[in-house]
Amino acid sequence: MTVDHAYGSTTIEAEPKSIVTLGLSDQDPLLALGVAPTAVAPWWGDYEYATWPWAQDELGDAQPTVLNGGVRDDSNPPIEEIAELEPDLIISLYNGTTKEQYEQLSEIAPVVVPDEEYTNFSITWQEATRATGEALGREEEALELVDELERSFADIAKEHPEFAGKEAIVAERFEAGESVVRTGNDVRAQFFSQLGFTVPEAIAEFKPNDAGEVYVPDERIDELSKDLLVWNAGFSPEAKKTVEDLGLYRDLPVVRGDDVLWVEDEVVSGAFSWGTILSLDYALDEMVPQISRTLK
Predict the structure, then answer these.
(1) Could you tell me the fold of the domain covering 2-150?
(2) Which of 48, 40, 86 is CA-nearest to residue 66?
(3) Is there a smaller number of Cβ atoms within 10 Å at the N or the C end of the chain?
């Protein structure tokens, strides 16, 4: 089979038996298709085999290697460690794999990266699932999984007509003095879009980068005041106090109206951030009731 992608095409001559996943969440669609990876790249969360609770059942008794001792380094993939594992397929989808890295990895085994429109951490969960299925020769099965989850989103949107057309902002805090707003193909933005919300493509004059991130300085935090403001903070419990101590923040209409949702539970925040075929079911179950209560 030949898989076309951003850097050309990759030929996979036989059904792969030993697969290394390099993207932040690439193991999830693989596990959803009943295949355990030989090795995975770490992202965040202190879970054995870099596998979060929503994917433990699918992992079963498998014990994949967590590459680079569990320390992520996007600029330097552990080429030698991967070569020692002798994989027959490398999947790097939710990632920022460069052409040079692709060529290095291709000397070890066939490598599958996204199509041009989904490079640099912008792949959707639908495309990540489909592309993984294609690499395994099981694209039809993968698309059935996608259809099933999309029906779940559609059913929830019908059950909650109050979501339709409301403008939602998904924000996070990493550095002092600014907030990151998720837009475009980002999994967190798409989560709300699929529930019927409108998610802005840009915030005032601040334009998103290639990863769909908009950096909004604290002096312009008023631009985050829409119908619903969602803070994804499970990875940074200190963020809530930091944000709420900002003078401008307390007077925002969205704050005064109590239309702010803080996603503080680590696993819920993780499921929302991973945004995979496996994690989204969990995120829907946990977050939709909270969203509905927040909007009243």
Answers:
(1) Rossmann fold (3.40.50)
(2) 40
(3) C
The third-level CATH classification (topology) of the domain covering 160-295 is Rossmann fold (3.40.50)
Could you give phi then psi for residue 66, rounded to 5 degrees? -95, 115
Q: How far apart are the first and last CA of the chain?
A: 51
For the chain, the domains span 2-150, 160-295
Q: CB-based contacts of 143: which residues, under 8 Å, 6+ apart?
A: 129, 130, 133
Q: Would the CATH topology of 2-150 be identical to that of 160-295?
A: yes
pLDDT tens-digit readout, 104-119: 999 999 999 999 999 9
HEC-encoded secondary structure of 239-280:
HHHHHHCCCCHHHCHHHHCCCEEEECCHHHHHHHHHCCCCHH
80 bridge partner residues: none
Query: Token pair 């596998």 is at which residue?
Result: 51
